[in-house]
Amino acid sequence: MKSLYCLWFGNKKIYSLDQLRKNFDFDTAEMYYLGGGLSRWLRQCGENDIAASVEKMDPLGNISKQLAEIFSVKLPKGRSNTPSVAFSKENSVCAVQNNTSAYAYPESGSFIFENAVLSSFNSSFGASNHISGSFYSETGSFMSNRGSFTLNSFNTFSSSFSLFTGSFETASFQSLLESGSLASSGGSFTSGSFNLHEYEYEYGTSFKASSFNFNSFNPECFSTSIANQKNSTSLSENKNRAYRAKIVQLSPQEKIKLNIMFCPLNRFGYGIDLI
Amino acid sequence: MKGIHIISTAPFFAKNPNGAYFMNKFELYTVVLSALSWKSLGNEIYLAADNKGAEYIDILGISNVWDGIEKVIPHDLEGINPKMFWAAGKLFALREIAAPLAMIDLDFILWKMPELPPDRIVAAHRENITPSVYPEIASFKFKRPFNTENMNEKVLPMNTAFLYLPDENFKQYYVNRSIAFMKSAADCGDYLCYMVFAEQRLLSICAEEKKVGSQVLMDKDELFFPRDDYTHIWGAKQVLRNNTNSLHDFCARARERIEKDFPAYKYVIGKIESAFSPF
C-alpha cells in the first residue's frame, strides 16, 4: 500500500538526489530523517547505498553532522542537532505550566482544579479536589466562552429532561439524569478513572443557565420531531424537510437542548443518538 | 475511498505493562458500526494496527469486518513516549498507507458520504485556539532542536476524528514533521498539548504553509446541534466507562443497529458478547 512521494523543501518539490543536494536545508532534511521518510524516499529514488547510510545513522548523535557527511553538503558553523540531556523528564517544564492555564500537573499525572467556577461546581457535589480537568476548552461544558456551567443550569436541565420521560430516554438514561449525570456512578466525572490519554474528554457542549429560557421552549412541540429524528433513516423526504424546518427556527441554545434530549450522551460527543 | 481505522496498543501497555490488551465493549460496537457504515457508503475499510492490536481483533473473531488488516504500526512507536503521544500510532499508520485515504477514528461514524475533493484535505471540524489546549508554540520544550519558526499561529487546528488526505506528498510532509516533533519534544509529562499540536495544529500549519486547501465536515460552532450525518462518541466514552446503565443502554442500541442495518454481520454481536462473558 506504499506509494511514491517527493520531499518538500520550502516551496520546492524534490524528486532526485541531485535536486536534494542543490536545495539542501538542514531543518527539513532532519525533519524527514526523524520522521522516517528520508531513507524511504532515497530507496524509492534507487539510491540504496545512501539510504543504507541514512538508516545506519546514530539518532542519538549529531544528526546534522551525519547528514552533512552522507550528502556531502557543508555543515554550517555551529549547526548541531543532538538530543540534550538538559530536558530529561525530571527537569523539564511543561508548556502548559508556563501559560495561564487553570491547571497544574501534580506528580500523579492527574489534573488539579484551580478554577473557582469548577471548584465551586466540584464542591457542590462533594467531590474531591482532584478532578478530571475536563471540559475546559472553548466548547467545554464547565468553562467556556459561552459561559460556565453552573449547578443552577444543571438543575434546569434535569428538570427539562424529566419532561421527556417515555419519549426517547430509556430508563438507564433517566437514571443517569436523575442521579445528576455528572456526579453519578461513583462520581463519574470526578472519579480517579480519568484517562489522561483522552483528549476527547476535554470536550463537550457548553451551557449557560441564563441562555436557556425554558418557558419559551416547549419540549412537547418537539416530541414528534425527536421521534422522527430517531427514525430519520426511514423518514420520507417531506417529513425530513419539515423536521429540518422546525430545527432551523430554533435558537442555538435550543438546538443544543434539543440535541441533548435526543440522547444525553450528545452532551459529550455528537450524533450519538443516531446509533 | 479507502478508509483506515487504527489500533495502537503502545499507550495501553505503557499504562498496563503486565496487562492483556482489550477494548471496552462499547468501543468494539462503535468501531464495528463505523466500519460497516463506511463500507455501506461504497467504500473500503482497512485496519492499521501493531502486532498486538491485530492479534486482539483476530482472536475476537471480527477481522472480517475490515477489508484487510495491515500490521504497519511499530510496537515501540520508534521510541516516542506513548503516554505523552497517545495518538502517535495514527501518524505512523498515515505514513505507511498510501493516499488517497480517509482516516477514521474508532469512535467516529459516518452515516452519510461526505464530499471528498481530489485537491483538498478534509477534517472533521476546526477547533478554536484555546491556550490551555493549544498554548503558544514558543512555549514547547524540546530535547533536540526543532524548527518552529515561521509557523502561522493563527490558523485554526483541525480535529482529526476524520481526516481525508488526497495527496501523498503533503501526507508525507505532514506526518514526517509530526513524527519529528514527537521525537524532538522534551519528555515533560504533558499529556494533552503536545499531542494535539503534533496531530491537529501542525496539520493546519502544514496545509497553510504548503498552500494545500482544506475543508471540514462540520462547523465547529454547530457540533452539538441535532444532526443526522456523523457520530463522534468523543467525551461520552468516559461516561460509558463509568456508568454501567448507560453502557448497557448504548450497547443495546448498537446491537439493534447492527441487526437492523447490517444483518450479514450479526455474528459480530455474538463474538463481542462472548468476549465479555464470564463463562
Task: Characterise the protein shown here.
The complex is a heterodimer of chains A (275) and B (279). With 275 residues, chain A is mostly helical. Helix content of chain A is 40%, strand content 4%. Chain A has 13 helices and four strands. Chain A has helices at 17-22, 26-35, 37-44, 48-55, 63-71, 95-98, 116-124, 151-162, 171-178, 184-187, 223-230, 237-248, 252-262; strands spanning 7-9, 12-14, 103-104, 112-113. In chain A, a hairpin with a 7-residue loop joins strand 3 (103-104) and strand 4. Chain A is elongated, with a radius of gyration of 28 Å. Residues 87-225 of chain A have low confidence and may be disordered. Chain B contains nine helices and nine strands. In chain B, helix 3 (51-60) links the parallel strand 2 and strand 3 (68-71). Chain B has a single domain, classed as Spore Coat Polysaccharide Biosynthesis Protein SpsA, Chain A. Chain B has a seven-stranded mixed beta sheet with strand order 3-2-1-4-7-6-8, with helices on both faces. By secondary structure, chain B is α/β, with parallel strands linked by helices. Classes of the chains: A mainly alpha (275), B alpha/beta (279). The interface between A and B is large, with 97 and 96 residues.
